[in-house]
Amino acid sequence: MSGEGSDHTVVIKWSGQEFRLSLPKDATVGDLKKATQAATGVLPERQKLLGLKFKGKPPGDDVALTDMKLKPSTKIMMMGSREEELDKVKEVPKDLPEVVNDFDIEEEEIAIENREEYLAKIERRIKEYKINVLNEPREGKKLLVLDIDYTLFDHRSVAETANELMRPFLHEFLESAYENYDIVIWSATGMKWVEVKMKELGVTSHPNYKICFMLDSLAMISVHTPKYGVIEVKPLGVIWGKYEQWSAKNTIMFDDIRRNFIMNPQTGLRIRAFREAHFNRDKDRELLKLSKYLKHIAALEDFTDLNHRHWERYRPKRKHEHTDSSERQLKESGDT
Prior knowledge:
Strand content: 15-25%
CATH superfamily of the largest domain: HAD superfamily/HAD-like
Helix content: 25-40%
Largest sheet: 5 strands, parallel
Radius of gyration: 26 Å
Number of strands: 11
Number of domains: 2
Order of helices and strands: EEHEHEHHHEHEHEEEHEEHHH
CATH architecture of the largest domain: 3-Layer(aba) Sandwich
Oligomer: single chain
């Protein structure tokens, strides 16, 4: 639909490109979608035209563009995929590596974090996923979200008891963290496995700290990355949508796989994987070091300025630095 006599010019923004469409005076939203299909290859039923409203609601296909009073060359962002692209992402690749290189994932974080279709999936999880609260959240506490496999526990090595595969200083770490943080366990496995392992490790029955609740694979969402295809991730928005006291400002997540927090890249800290427990448990000090980091940042009002990749180099400002600064200001004001 194009021509010199057209009365509506609309610019469709999609997949990093802009498509200028010209439509006749009597064109409807349905006509706009057909023209969009001709330009992009995305079927009308796959199109989501963001920001297009009529009487405060998304318009039906029969609504005339004239009635919507669009400005000349109005730009509309579209979400949608061609059928051939959808076919590529229906199945998880069999050769998906367990650990994805940080630099591989980093290029895709910005493109994925705010994608409309993934935010819609998070909204569905917020509405549909049921959380079994073990201990009520405490007022004023920040949030620590922990993975299990290779983070707290070596789940691949052979042993007679779970304690042999438990990461060194696990209970000391959780006890220390509990002073400032409510603790949530989130595993990419089923809830039955989560409950059994946490019980075996003595985590859910420990007298000196409490687990707020646990999440399993059903709380995760699938996203598509150009390099790795479909991957399952842990969007913290599911928790934030259910508990308004927590947000990116006061939440930190530990996981040994960076792709698990690709929807919240700034909030995640990639912990070193704990493997081969029998060989490494005498020298692994990761949780001890991270206990100090959690203590240091607990006093901060906002975590969003932190770069958790550099956690080992983080040094909190000393109290006397603030005092010295205040005293200098007082002296300077007194001298004037």
